[in-house]
Structure formats: C-alpha cells, structure tokens
Task: inverse folding
C-alpha cells in the first residue's frame, strides 16, 4: 500500500516536471517568435530604406528634391511703390502631388480631384494616377480651402509640398510695369524680368510709381475708352525734373497671377512697346527746333492760306484758318501747313538731329525690356522733313514722347525716364545734359499754355493749375494707306506751366465719336478731358495747392499780341 502511494507520488512529480518543461519550451518558442518578428521588421525596414526608397523611390525623391531645391534657392524679394505699398510679394503655398503606387482608387480619386479643380481634365488626371512613377504634380499653388477639400478625399497617395508663390496684391493695376513670373518664380516681363536675379537673391526693390496716381490714371484712361468705345489706351505721369515715372498704364491689361491665360493683346505693353504716329504733338518739337536753331521771334509768319504740295502729297489743315499765321497761331490752331514750313526752315539735318537729341528716334532706355523701336523715314528727304514736323511718317512710343516733352518744359535738360526709386528720393538723378536753351524752354511753356487757354486743348484746362499741352490726332495706317476712320487721339500736358513739375499723357486707340462730342473723336474731345481729370485727381492726392489768378498770372499773356481772335 505504501509502495503504491510512493509510485503514485513519483508519477505526479514527474508529471509536474514535464508540464513545467513544456511550459518553459512554449515560452521560449514565443520569445523566439517575437525576436524573429522584430528581426523581420528591421530587415524589412532596411530593405525599404536601401532598396525601395533608395532605388525604386529615387525618382520621387529626385522630383521632390528638384522642386524643393528650386524653391529654397529662390527667396524672391518684395517690390513696393514709392510709399511702401506692396506691388509684388512671395507667400508659401501648398502644391498637390500624387504617388500613383499608393492610390487605391484611381477612378474615384480622379473624379474627386476634377470636382475640386474643374479646370483639370479627368482623362489627364486618371492617366497620371495610373502611372508607374512615384511622384507627379497634380496642381500647383492651392488655396487653404482647396487643400482642406483634397484632404477630405482621404487618399494616402496624395500629398503636399509647400512652395513659394508670387503674389501681386494690386492685381492688374500695375501689371505691365511690375511684370510677372512663371510658376517657378522666374521673371518673364517688366521689372520682374529685368531684375530677376536681384529679386531672386532676396533684395527688395522700390519703384517710382505712386499706386494712388496709378489708380487715378488707369481709371481715367478706361473712362475715355468707354466713353468713346475705343480699342485700347495708354497713359503716363512723369516727374519732369528727374524722369521718375509716377504712373504708367496700358489698357487692356491683365491679371499677373494668370498671365499665361491672358489674351496676347492684353499682355502687349502699349506704353513702352507700342510704336505709333502720334500726330500734332510732334509740333512741340518742330517748333522748339525752329526757336532753338534760328532764334525766330514770335512774330515770324507762315503762309497757311492754301494747302501745301509735298511731292505727290498735299498737306492740309484740319482747323484751317486760311490766312498767314504767326508762330503762336500755327501752334494754337495746330496748323500742319505752318508746321511743315517751319520744318523746311529748320532743315532736314537739323530737324533730324534735334529729334535724335530728344531721344525720339532710338529705342528708349528704361529698366524694363518691353521697349519699342521707333519708325523713322528711310530715306529721310525734304518731304519727310515736312511731314515729320507735324508727326506724320515718324512713329515712337507714348513713353518716349512724354520724356521728350518733359525735356522741353523743365528748362531744357534731357530727361531719362526711370522706374527704380533712387536712394534719397527726389531729384537725385537730374540730368546735366541740356538739349534746349532756357529761352526756348520758356517760350515753349508759353505756347503750350496758349493751346490750353485759347487753342485746341481747351478741354484740358483745370482752374488753378495752369495746365499747358498739345493735342495730337493721327490717322492709322490701313491696307490702302491712312484710314480716316481709325484714329490715335492723344494729349500731352504739363503743369504748373510757371515752373513745371509733372507731365501727363493720355493716348486713346481708335475712339468713336459720341453725342457729347458731336460725333468727333479727335484729341481735343477724347484725350484732353482725360488729362484734365487726371490733373484734378493729382491735385487732391498730392495736396498740390490751387493757385489764384493773382498768385499765378497767365503765362501766355505775352503771346496774345501775336494772335488774332477774330475767328474765335
């Protein structure tokens, strides 16, 4: 009995030992399995890092690095107006990319993306999402809302890279001068193009533009276009003492954020690139040439009783007086006949040289690349001298003409227009190169004032600001020569004429007459009133004091004795 109990006890002990061994063996197997799993995870990660991401993911990594490195290299600086108002700046924006290998539902994802971005093509997006590549751009420069909606799609194969995007807070207001960049922030036009490397190196620029004046000028050029159903227009405000461009407009204009989708006609800069025959405004220069080269007194007369024969052409007067005219009368009545006779008296060589000295016959130098090349008669003979005296047969840009007028009225010093504000601000770059004498400049200021007070430019007059200027109405060249129904109507003015500080020019392309203008589409009806409105706005914006008659005697009063007002 005792022996039996001992045997049972021994069997029990042996069973307990066997269970303990089995339990230990099981734990060992479990621990080994855990370690094996860890090793497998580590091995898989090593393979992922070294093989998949190192080789298979090389394309995606390279693409990301290329995108990010280009962004990192370009910390594009701000462009501001003369008062510190932002014209161009750079902001971080999210751009959407896809890794097609991680897209679980290409069709559904493509539909979702096209719904968010209607400009995308479903077929193009679907094709991208079924690619074997690891990185493809889907859309650049998303808004925060667009980024949020994309995240709601819940697709792990969609991701975001943050890039710098060029932003233009003033929109189209200064698009032609400031310019724009491409999607990689490289300048393609305007200041953005000319100073691409400078801005890319993080160096900011301050322009001479005053955005307040820019707005006023654009508004009035647009109004002139609307009132006269015109095709296009341009305008400029310039400081005649140093050439600073305070405003410059070309219409139609465009949104610089969407320049690639803009109409080429809107992209074209009519102010600096467009070359036009600007008509009778050239009489400013031919008259100045006569005074400068011959010292002719204001009493000098020219016979404008009959049209003038010039080769196979006949020169007529639009505002025909049909009488002998003095210099002030030729100018205030804008006589083509009288101006042509002036040109003959000056002579071909002297007139051509004078125009060249004013910068009218060669491409203008300014800080943007969109510069037109003037059209000059070739050969330039006697007939060309006669027609060029009243702006026929020679074409230049509105920018150049305004610069040349600034040279005439500022006392005779050559004006080179500029868009970059100099350190120290006003008058830092005043030219010492004299083109006309102080006497000629003074005489021209009187004549310009006479045009506005008593001549073809009466609609440009602004009480208290002593505006002077000149009208210019030119026929455009068509298939069969000059087309009387297609005009360029322009006015260039300066003020105050006692001591000019500002020049304002407005050009309107192909205006149509209306009831208020009695059907006329000439410069005196179209462009002169626009300049008057700009001058009035400038007075308010810049705080220019209005001068009373006693404080500013009529500058052209001394010329009245040479003028007959019998027909007025």
Result:
């Amino acid at each position: 009995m005792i022996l039996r109990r001992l045997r049972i006890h021994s069997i029990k002990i042996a069973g307990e030992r066997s269970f303990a061994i089995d339990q230990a063996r099981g734990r060992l197997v479990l621990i080994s399995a855990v370690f094996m799993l860890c090793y497998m995870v580590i091995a898989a990660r090593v393979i992922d890092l070294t093989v998949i991401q190192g080789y298979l993911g090389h394309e995606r990594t390279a693409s990301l690095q290329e995108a990010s490195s280009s962004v990192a290299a370009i910390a594009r600086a701000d462009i501001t107006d003369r008062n510190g108002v932002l014209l161009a700046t750079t902001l971080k924006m999210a751009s959407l990319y896809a890794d097609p290998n991680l897209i679980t539902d290409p069709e559904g994802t493509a539909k979702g993306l096209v719904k968010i971005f209607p400009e995308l093509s479903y077929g193009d997006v679907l094709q991208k999402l079924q690619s074997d590549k690891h990185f493809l751009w889907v859309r650049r420069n998303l808004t925060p809302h667009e980024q949020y909606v994309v995240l709601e799609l819940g697709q792990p194969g969609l991701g975001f890279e943050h890039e710098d995007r060029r932003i233009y807070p003033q929109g189209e207001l200064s698009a032609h001068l400031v310019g724009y960049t491409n999607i990689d922030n490289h300048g393609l036009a305007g200041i953005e193009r000319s100073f691409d490397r400078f801005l890319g190196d993080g160096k900011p620029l301050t322009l001479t533009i005053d955005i307040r004046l820019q707005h006023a000028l654009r508004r009035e050029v647009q109004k002139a276009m609307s009132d006269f159903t015109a095709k296009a227009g341009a305008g400029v405000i310039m400081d005649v003492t140093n050439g600073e461009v305070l405003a410059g407009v070309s219409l139609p204009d465009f949104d610089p954020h969407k320049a690639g989708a803009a109409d080429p006609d809107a992209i074209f800069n009519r102010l600096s690139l467009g070359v036009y025959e600007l008509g009778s405004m050239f009489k400013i220069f031919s008259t100045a040439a006569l005074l400068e080269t011959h010292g002719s007194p204001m009493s000098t007369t020219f016979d404008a009783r009959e049209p003038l024969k010039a080769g196979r052409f006949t020169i007529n007067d639009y505002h025909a007086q049909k009488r002998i005219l003095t210099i002030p009368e030729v100018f205030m009545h804008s006589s083509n006949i009288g101006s042509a006779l002036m040109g003959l008296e000056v002579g071909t060589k002297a007139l051509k040289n004078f125009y060249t000295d004013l910068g009218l016959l060669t491409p203008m130098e300014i800080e943007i690349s969109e510069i037109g090349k003037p059209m000059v008669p070739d050969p330039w003979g006697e007939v060309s001298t006669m027609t060029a005296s009243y702006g026929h047969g020679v074409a230049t840009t509105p920018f150049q003409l305004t610069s040349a007028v600034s040279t005439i009225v500022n006392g005779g010093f050559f004006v080179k227009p500029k868009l970059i504000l100099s350190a120290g601000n006003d008058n830092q770059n005043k030219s010492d190169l004299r083109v006309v004498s102080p006497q000629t400049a003074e005489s021209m200021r009187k004549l310009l004032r006479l045009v506005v007070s008593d001549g073809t430019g009466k609609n440009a007059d602004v009480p208290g600001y002593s505006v002077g200027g000149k009208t210019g109405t030119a026929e455009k060249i068509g298939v069969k020569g000059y087309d009387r129904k297609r005009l360029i109507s322009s006015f260039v003015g300066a003020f105050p004429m006692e001591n000019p500080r500002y020049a304002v020019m407005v050009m309107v392309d192909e205006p149509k007459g209306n009831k208020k203008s009695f059907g006329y589409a000439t410069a005196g009806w179209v462009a002169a009133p626009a300049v008057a409105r700009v001058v009035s706005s400038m007075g308010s914006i810049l705080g220019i004091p209005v001068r009373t008659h006693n404080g500013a005697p009529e500058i052209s009063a001394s010329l009245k004795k040479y003028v007959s007002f019998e027909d007025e």
Summary: The chain has two domains: 71-94+162-207, 214-562. The longest helix spans residues 2-56. Residues 49-62, 64-72 have pLDDT under 50 and may be disordered. The domain at 71-94+162-207 is CATH 3.90.1310.10 (Penicillin-binding protein 2a (Domain 2)).
